[in-house]
Every structure is written in C-alpha cells, then in structure tokens.
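Hi R.,

As promised on Friday, here is the backbone we talked about, encoded as structure tokens. Could you run it through your design pipeline when you get a chance and send me back a sequence?
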C-alpha cells in the first residue's frame, strides 16, 4: 500500500476524498479495499490529532457558551447545581464547581468533563505549597499506611508529610512534584489522590526486587493482544499481572480512598519503573480487563516520571490521551473492523456474545461489558463476571 504519513494539507484532503470513495463502495471485511480504508482512517486520525487539537476553554465560559447555544436561562441549571443562588455564584465565579455539579453538567449539557474540571487550573494548583491538613489523614491512619514509614513522627500531619516525601512526590516537603491527569482528577480530590499515589508508589517499590528490567520496546499491539487473550482463562487476571511484572511493570492493587472515584492509574517512578495501580472499585471481570489494558496504554504512550493518570470509567471523556488509551484497549480485545459487523453488536444475545468470545479467545465478560456500555443495555449482567476479581486476588 502506498499510504504515507500525512505532511501537507493537500495530502490530507486527498486521503479524505479516497476514504469517501471507498466507503461508498461498502468494501467487504478483510478485502484489500477494507484494509486500505482501515489504514487510511488511522493515518487521518493521527494527522487530525496532531494538527487540530484544541485547548479546553475556561469551565465557566464553556457553560455560558452552551447555555447560549441551547437558549438556556440560569434557572434551567438549577437541577444540576442545586439552587438559583448556587447557579448565580457558579456563573459569577464565586463558587467552585463540585464533583456532582461537574457530572450533572457534563451529562445533561454535553460539555467535556475535562473542560469542566479545568485541568489547566488543577495543574497550576498542583505546584503550590501543600496543605497537610487537607489529606484524609484519619482514613489513612485507619488503613495503617503510616505503619511502614522508616521515620515515623509524633503528629499525624508530620507522618503524612513523611509518606509523601518517601514516595518522592514532593519538592522539599512543601509542594507536589507530579501533575495529575485524567478523568478521575477533580479539585476536591487532589490531596486524596496524592496520598493514594504515594501508597501505590511505595508498594510498587517493594516489588522491584522481583521485577525484570523494563524495556519499552516489547510493548506492541501484538503484546496487547497477548495480554487480552489471557482473559480466556479462569486464572486470567493473575496470569496477566504475572506477565506484566515479568516485563518490568509493577502492578499494585490498592482500594481507593473514600473521597475519590477511580478505577486505575498509570505512572512511572522516579527511576523509570512503570507502575499500574488498580482499585477494583467495580469487582467485575469486564472492568478489570479494560482498566488493565487502558492503563498499559498510558504506560506505552503517555506516562512519565512527571505525571500520573487517574481514570474513572463512569465518566465519558473527550481528552485526546484518554481517547487514545481507550482505543488501544478496545482494539486489543475486539478489532474495530470486526466489532460493528458482529452479531454480538448487531443482535446482542448470550449466544452471540459467546460465539464472538470463542472466535477472539477472550472472556465473554469483555464483550458483554462493551455491549452494555455502548448500547445502553441493562441485560447480560450475568456475563460480566461480577464478584470474580477480588476473589482471585484474595481481597475482601
């Protein structure tokens, strides 16, 4: 195929025209035309992501623009914010958006959660001085996170500072070192997320002596498919963790702190060791597998020692990095060229889900979960592997 990386606007429009011609012909699956269409689409997406990315607007400006677009008045926002006075305070920037407001406005007004979260503001806030009293210290104490500190202090706030310092997340104990990214991040949960990140970092370091050296060149699309196909086995989650750790990726399971809503996280420690953190918030096989491969995609494409990605898969995202990780994970399980032509998608049933699962050698829970998420089905709850993951990892 003579398809090349797009370097000019002219080449971009030529490829657009060819895609339209190919789509009009409705090429059959796995035909040369179908393969060419698939490749053209990938090349076009890569060019569009690079050339036409748009910085998210200010959250309040975005809300006002959407109100004008939908011809809404302030009173129309009351169901999402709680009262007329709160709406007025939010729009005049006297009251910050809460997590609940963000969820409601995102769902009902169709505004990206990234925009409403104001991630740029969060990133700036992250480098300000830390306020140790804002950490959920009582919950952390109850969980015993201070017990393993090398130099425990007398006060709880000092212990909190020690935990953050030992994990390498602060500059001289006063400001945070990493930028928090992803749909699981909100202004009100920043401190809890840093605490959880510190705990996962320290647990990952305990595993390092058992890890092989990490070589990022082994992460390919073929490797993603190898991991995905481990889901076919009853012990699949355990096998997947073992496989990743043999490749130098630490996988840590740590329940989320109560104030946070996250399924998983991905980052690299200061020495470059990649770490995947899983909360098992939803004890289901479909959620485990998608979270694992989504975080692996972040390790492959986005994670550094300067940032950390937190994911909440109950929130829809338009963020480019999150969308890319979603795409990589979905493609590893079910190729895009196959999914919307499959009977599991066109005529969802237990039998059709099982047939596609056998064909792809992945667990039916993954297909059932995708059907439920994309088509809004409440059915197939018996196929998603409820209660199976924590049992495998001996977690109550």
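Update: got your reply. Pasting your designed sequence below so it's all in one thread:
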């Amino acid at each position: 195929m003579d398809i090349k990386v797009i370097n000019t606007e002219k080449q971009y429009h030529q490829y657009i025209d060819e895609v339209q011609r190919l789509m009009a012909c409705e090429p059959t699956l796995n035909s040369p035309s179908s393969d060419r269409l698939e490749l053209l689409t990938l090349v076009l997406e890569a060019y569009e992501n690079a050339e036409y990315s748009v910085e998210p607007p200010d959250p309040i400006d975005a809300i006002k623009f959407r109100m004008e677009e939908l011809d809404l008045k302030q009173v129309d926002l009351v169901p999402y914010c709680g009262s007329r006075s709160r709406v007025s305070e939010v729009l005049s920037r006297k009251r910050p958006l809460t997590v609940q407001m963000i969820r409601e406005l995102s769902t009902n007004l169709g505004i990206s959660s990234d925009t409403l979260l104001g991630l740029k503001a969060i990133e700036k806030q992250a480098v300000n001085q830390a306020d140790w009293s804002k950490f959920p210290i009582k919950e952390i104490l109850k969980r015993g996170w201070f017990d393993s500190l090398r130099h425990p202090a007398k006060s709880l706030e000092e212990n909190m500072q020690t935990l953050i310092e030992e994990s390498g997340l602060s500059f001289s104990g006063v400001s945070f070192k990493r930028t928090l990214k992803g749909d699981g991040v909100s202004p009100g949960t920043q401190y809890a997320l840093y605490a959880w990140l510190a705990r996962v970092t320290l647990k990952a370091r305990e595993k390092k002596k058992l890890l092989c050296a990490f070589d990022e060149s082994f992460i390919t699309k073929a490797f993603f498919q190898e991991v995905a196909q481990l889901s076919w086995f009853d012990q699949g989650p355990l096998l997947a963790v073992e496989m990743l750790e043999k490749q130098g990726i630490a996988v840590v399971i740590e329940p989320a702190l109560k104030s946070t809503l996250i399924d998983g996280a991905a980052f690299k420690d200061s020495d470059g060791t990649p770490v995947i953190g899983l909360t098992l918030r939803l004890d289901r096989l479909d959620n485990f597998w998608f979270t694992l491969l989504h975080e692996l995609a972040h390790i492959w494409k986005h994670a550094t020692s300067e940032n950390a990605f937190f994911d909440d898969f109950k929130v829809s995202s338009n963020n480019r990095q999150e969308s890319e990780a979603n795409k990589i994970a979905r493609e590893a399980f079910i190729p895009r060229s196959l999914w919307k032509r499959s009977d599991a998608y066109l005529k969802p049933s237990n039998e059709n889900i099982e047939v596609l699962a056998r064909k792809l050698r992945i667990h039916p829970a993954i297909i059932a979960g995708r059907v439920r998420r994309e088509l809004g089905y409440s059915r197939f709850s018996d196929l998603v592997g409820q209660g199976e993951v924590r049992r495998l990892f001996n977690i109550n």
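One thing I noticed while checking it: Confidence is low (pLDDT under 50) at residues 120-128.

Thanks again,
M.
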